[in-house]
Amino acid sequence: MSFLKDQTAELWKAFMPFRNAVPHRVGTHYMSMQVYPAESAGNITPTSIFRKWAVVEVSEVDALPDGMVSYDLSGGKYAVFIHHGPASAFGETMKHIFQVWLPSSGFQIDSREHFELLEEGYSPSDPQAREEIWIPIK
User: Fold this and answer.
1) Left (φ > 0), alpha (ψ -120 to 50) or beta: where does 125 sit?
2) 119 and 27 in contact (C-beta within 8 Å)?
3) Can you give the residue range of the structural domain that contains 87?
4) pTM
5) What is the pLDDT of residue 42?
6) How many Å from the N-terminal Cα to the C-terminal Cα in the chain?
7) Facing residues of 130 across strands?
8) DSSP 76
9) Cβ neighbours of residue 65 closer than 8 Å, sequence gap 6 or more
10) How many structural domains are present in the chain?
11) 67 within a domain of the structure (yes/no)
12) In the beta sheet, which residues pair with residue 83?
């Protein structure tokens, strides 16, 4: 998908009915993960095409429900930010990260997974919602 052709709601609507069928879950949180092509690592735009995943963390991978696959995070250094508020305001937080913080940070975007940690009960329309934003840096 891309930010202009966002299908996040559809992804999560398809995933959530099966979340409790995943064996060996670690905690109750979720991850919304984006994997960008290596060539767009430092230049993510609204039209950048990427793969998005709805994720739960597990301690071991076996007997996944049909249609689900495992994924191992690459690991590495991340900058972590907190977004408070509804998902509709998320773009402003990302704009600040990429247009204000990043240029003055001395870091560059690394070509690894980007993700957000969401607690159980997260609602994208909640004005008190909280997300941890993990941006890969080098």
Assistant:
1) alpha
2) no
3) 8-61+75-136
4) 0.90
5) 67
6) 25
7) 84
8) -
9) 18, 21, 22
10) 1
11) no
12) 131
